[in-house]
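Notebook entry, structure prediction.
Reason for the run: the old model in the group folder had no record of what sequence produced it. Starting over properly, with the input documented here first.
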Amino acid sequence: MFAVVRTGGKQYRVAAGDKIAVEKLAGDAGDTITLGDVLLAGEGEKMEDAGKVTVSAEIIAQAKSEKVTVFKKRRRHNYRRKNGHRQQMTLLRIVAVGDSKAETKAAPKKEAAPKADDSADKAAPASKPAAKKAAPKKEAAPAKSGTHETETGKKAPAKKAAPKKAAAKTEDKK
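New structure, fully documented this time:
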């Protein structure tokens, strides 16, 4: 069975098992969501009532799409602007496309499985050894040129450059 779903201002034709990238949706990886705006549904050439069909999807990851370069230029005006943009997106795996009655029965079973995984994840960090101790601090880097540190740790004032001789410049010009 397939369905045409609208999300993020775009339409996607999906079937069970498909992976799609859509505009960012709320949720973490592993969460199950329902795409509610179904425009069309069917199987083969036979169409069904889209109002009764629900689409269930699992979030694979939250990511960024490829970079888009925005370049503006006005010729003969020395005007150039270059910007980049990476759109936030959500990767989805379509779990099921079907009637809302069948979907509501199947959804709680799938949600119960991740809860068991979460408890296993929480138990694993507890069995790990204690956090690593911080590495010893390195000595301070040498001071920048122009500053001098005394033995007490206070900085001495920087040496001033000798004033240039004005007489030498006037002789060169003649």
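Summary: The longest strand covers residues 53-64.
The old model has been moved to the deprecated folder.
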